[in-house]
Design goal:
The structure holds two protein chains of two kinds. By secondary structure, chain A is mainly α. Chain A contains 22 helices and four strands. In chain A, α2 runs antiparallel to α5 and α12 packs antiparallel against α13. The longest helix of chain A has 32 residues, at 150-181. By secondary structure, chain B is mostly helical. Helices cover 48% and strands 4% of the residues of chain B. Chain B contains two helices and two strands, in the order βααβ. Classes of the chains: A mainly alpha, B mainly alpha. Chains A and B meet through α11, α13, α16, β3 and α19 of A and β1, α1, α2 and β2 of B.
Chain lengths: 576, 92
Amino acid sequence: MIAELRTVVDLGPFANISPGLTLIVGALLVPFLSGWVRSAWTLVLPVIAFAHLMLLPEGYGGHLYVLGLDLVTLRVDDLSWMFGVIFLIATLLGMIYALHESHWLQPTVGLIYAGSAVAAVFAGDLMTLFVFWEGIALSSVFLIWARGTNAAYHAGIRYLVIQVGSGVLLLVGLLIHHNATGSLAFNALGLDSPGGLLMFVAFGIKCAFPLLHNWLEDAYPEATVVGTVLLSSFTTKVAVYALARGFAGTDILVPIGAMMAAFPIFYAVIENDLRRVLAYSLNNQLGFMVVGIGIGTELALNGAVAHAFADILFKGLLFMSMGAVLFRVGTVKGSELGGLYKSMPWTTAFCLVGAASISAFPLFSGFVTKAMIMSAAMKEGYFWTWMILLFASAGVFHHAGIKIPYFAFFAHDSRTRCKEAPWNMLIAMALAAVGCIAIGSLPIYFYQLLPYASSYEPYTTEHVITQLQLLMFSALAFALLMRTGIYPPELKSINLDSDWFYRRLGMNLVEGVAGLAAAVGASFGSIVNGFTTTLGGVLHRHIGPDGVLGRTWPTGTMAFWTTLMLGAYLLFVYLS
Amino acid sequence: MSDPDKRHTIPLGERSYWLDRPSNVNKLVYAFYALCGLILAVDIFVPKHGPFAIEHAFGFYGLFGFFACVVLVLIAKQLRRVLMRPEDYYDR
């Protein structure tokens, strides 16, 4: 399939270099450029990388021999190619969206981040995958920190600890796997060995499995306007790719995916920060892909890959539209928005295209991609999974399809008037919208790009009518609940999620131990008393609420040391 | 990064929009109700081929979508009692 698209030209030494490295090396130039030259370079670079990918021959390349390990840094096949293509498209859209940024930081780390993601999907062995897995974590955190707020700083540190932690699990897993099998090849891994199990958890963290998910909803909405758009495209989709490569057809993924698809939508209904609502719906869409990978038939895997491809475009588009609102109005809280269609008509229109696509309206991308997963679940007789996915489909329309555009652009007029989004954001949104409609309206061409030959036909009368029924009656429920006042209003609030365990319970335990030390100290005799209260005091001073080690510092120092150790390790691997 | 300075409140003499009139909103909503009725009615003429029997019942997708969303919202509303905290909860 790819062979038809690819004109094989002799790339010389570049035939052994990952297009991801093209992006990363090119990104290092960005800080040294300025003005329109820098802008032009950030746009030309993804195009160069794309051309590089198009010219790469299929197969393995970039062999390295380090520390007695055979590394295959480049593998181009149907699966990795598809992810490479959409990653580079998302990179270009993200760079167009970032053109108004005058500072070099975000385009630079954005391109390094995108390059790491591209290099990770083209990794032919697990060690190369690990290196870029960590590259993704270390580069992307700057897109959160660049927001410059206190909340973003702390969320970034939590994000980094969890992402680097996922990398450490991957590293331990791959070393165990290497010891057991003598191979580092990144192919089907399976859950029957401890190494495979650890890597499964590592992928699961990055893919936001239930209870391992909260870094996503915690960190993404705290990132910059541009940062959230880029973040939504890469990290979790690399994990989807890794699962599809290593664990296709693993049964346990089916219930895991179904839970992911269902649970976040409850949060999405009551969440006030509209970019956080989108983060929950991102988690929900990942659930569909994970189910597809778990079912593991050709139709299901095609569906998972197609849906990942489509999701990068429509979720990116939705995050872009909310980013434009944040940029112009200064907030994306549903409780403070409304009536913005008057000020931002184009942004509204593009947001509606994204909303229709994620909701899987006929003629929009979600309709032709999600249906493959649903259809595979039906074919293989997963009745309850199918029911849950149907529930999640109605739910995603409810919160991402209706709630996002409704509370931002319509609802009651917040009397806020602002300018339309900057031209560069409008162009990026327009291109993403065209992509969503093209995939949805001309699926025949899109299906030819998928890893397996597909005879799936999305546009049957039955499918169109039943899907329209599902969506319109979901909207009917919204309309009736809204007009009867039953629908919960947008309130200035946050909602507890699994991050509570480490952000609140963990803190209370630390404070409790310090308090206990002080209390035990007080009950002893005077000599002991003097000593222990000093100890309690010292503990309290360092670990208590105002202590150096209290609050954010434990995670901060941990992130610092983990990063340092990893950096040293990487250096060791590459230099020796 | 963002530029809230460019945020303005409603200018004097701004033109009124078609959607500003509640009667127009009602027109849209009633048209939508009619459309829902129509899409439910054509269900009779659409043969279903799926393997699950429940799917073949009249109007299954419509009813499922409607009740799924009502249940979703009602449960989510109750979840607020347990999960909702002030915005500065983690900063205190």
